[in-house]
Amino acid sequence: METILEDQRRLHEERERLIDLQTKELLRKKPTTKEQINSDHLVKLLWDKYIESTSNLINFYEDNDGLRKKEIQLLSGPNEYSEFNSRLKSIITYHKKSNLSDSANISVPMSIEYENLIKSIQSNDDDAGALVNFTDEEGFGKYLDLNELYQKYINLKGVDKINYIAYLSTYDHLFKMPRERKNQDYTRYLQALFNYLFDYLQRVKPLLDVSNEVEQAKVEFQTRWLEGTFPGWPKETTGALTKTGAYLDLSSYSSWEELASLGLDRLKSALMALGLKCGGSLQERAIRLFQTKGKRLQDLDPSLFAKSQNSKSKELNDKHKDIAELEAKVYRLAEILGPQRNATIENVQRKQALTPGEREQEEEAEIVAEESEEEEEDDGIIYNPKNLPLGWDGKPIPYWLYKLHGLNLYYNCEICGNHKYRGPKAFQRHFSEWRHAHGMRCLGIPNTAHFANITLIEDAVQLWEKLRVTRETDRFIPDNQEEYEDSHGNVLNKKTYDDLKRQGLL
User: Fold this and answer.
1) Number of H helices and number of E strands within the chain?
2) From residue 476, how far is each of 463, 493, 495 by CA, in Å?
3) CA distance 281 to 284
4) Taking Cα atoms as reference points, which of 474, 434, 470 lies closest to residue 450?
């Protein structure tokens, strides 16, 4: 029933709705790690659908089969009305034949379809309907589960037997492993480690392009391998003297007959040192070795070299390169999973310090906490019938703590404009705060320690008048309190001294 143009319109609408759903999901608050991971997987699912719709839309616009162009010509040609009537007739015929009472024949709007999809995914919290699964040890993306890989590691030949915590700290220190111990068993262990880290990273961070990270690690590895700076694999020097055997100086020999006098074993050793064929009779070996006098190895006939040895060396080098490339990938993935590794070490150390009974209690407490969090998230309203104050975690404080701090008592302060303070601690603290100081300033009274615990305006005014009177009586008056002494040693106040002095009686 749908035409090509209708399919294009539907794909455009689908792309816009997918972008809108992704935006809403990214802006939604996710308080727990589980919700964050599920949300990332949902966004990844929507993004994959968006890519698929875009690809189909591009195919329609490319119109390789020419059907889209043909349909546009039919709709815009000279017989557009007859084309319209034929399509209308086909629609009427279709609805007459189909049973409209059947819900399967009723078209559901795309907006309702995607809303139902999101609701079904978000409401399905059980493991069977989850977008991603984790083991119990992984704690839904919080920790790593390397127990199986740890058993494989300690069973490798020649490695130190370390505990699980030490393995978690050093599982990516692959450069410390000697090269001669990196055998086939080590390669299988390394491949299993890489597979687990790759799969775990895809489950924990679905929006991260893990394949791209691996490809970048391969590119960096190629550069460092050619430079000989990759950790654990120093560049080997390649030359004639690095071969097995003893090098022989030919400058003192003028013919192959003189070389033949050295014997089969010495000639063989000199040929092996140069990487040449070392078989044959005494004469053949002497002639083959004498041909190298005064020449570079690059100038020699390729048929003189030991082909099997060269191919074996190249095969061994390729094998070492494959192992080193696998190590480079593990390095990159371990670097990205650094936070999860640190959390795993802390969790293992904490669990090792618990008794079996404490572990069971902790697991039960975690289950109860998850259920309570889910209930609170579903309700969206905190249960607080006694109107208790909220603590640092956004939940009401315990009732015994509420009574202990006296938060059920309210104190009124008339100076602060009849403002009420909850609890004695807040009441005592308010005397040094701005509200009470402003009220005292409006009354023309200094906010000193004399007025502590004074809340009524009348009491504050009366106390201020009393303090003023006391200050006046205690004020120093020079005429009455300043003392003078005459020539006979008599002590007089200032007023009496001045009167006697004017009368000349002193």
Assistant:
1) 21, 4
2) 22, 13, 14
3) 5
4) 470
CA–CA distance, 22 with 287 (Å, rounded to integer): 78
* Rounded-to-integer distance, Cα 496 and Cα 438, Å: 48
Token pair in block for residue 229:
């700076």
The answer to whether residues 24 and 124 touch, using CB atoms and an 8 Å cutoff, is: no
Q: Is 174 left (phi over 0), alpha (psi -120 to 50) or beta?
A: alpha
Q: Which of 311, 303, 243, 296 is nearest to 273 (CA)?
A: 243
Closest by alpha carbon to 269, among 292, 310, 241, 297?
241
240 near 274, Cβ under 8 Å? yes
Highest mean pLDDT (candidates 260-269, 311-320, 346-355, 472-481): 346-355
User: Do 30 and 39 contact (CB within 8 A), yes or no?
Assistant: yes
Output the six-digit token pair for 48.
């994959």
Helix (H) / strand (E) element for 493: namely strand 491-493
Task: Please list the residues that pair with 40 across neighbouring strands.
Answer: none
**Candidate from 300-309, 337-346, 470-479 with smallest mean pLDDT:** 300-309
Average pLDDT over residues 140-152: 91
Query: How many beta carbons lie within 10 A of that of residue 310, not counting itself?
Result: 12
- Determine which helix (DSSP H) or strand (DSSP E) holds 419, and give its type and residue range: strand 419-422
> 419: which strand partners?
413
Q: Which pLDDT does position 483 carry in this prediction? A: 84
Look up residue 221 and give its two tokens: 């590895």
Measured CA to CA, the distance from residue 266 to residue 272 in angstroms comes to 10
* Cβ atoms of residues 486 and 492 within 8 Å: yes
**Mean of pLDDT values over 57-80:** 83
Distance CA 423, CA 407 (A): 4
**Which residue is associated with the tokens 């819900």?**
103
Q: By the 8 A CB rule, do 37 and 20 touch? A: no
Give CA separation, 71 vs 67, 68, 74, 90, 254, in Å: 6, 5, 5, 16, 91
Q: What whole-number distance in Å separates Cα of residue 362 and Cα of residue 353? A: 13
Q: What is the DSSP string of 190-251?
A: HHHHHHHHHHHHHHH-TTS-HHHHHHHHHHHHHHHHHHT-STT-PPPP-SGGGSSS-----T
Q: What is the pLDDT of residue 238?
A: 41
Residue at token pair 């992704």? 22
How far apart are alpha carbons 113 and 117 in whole angstroms?
A: 6
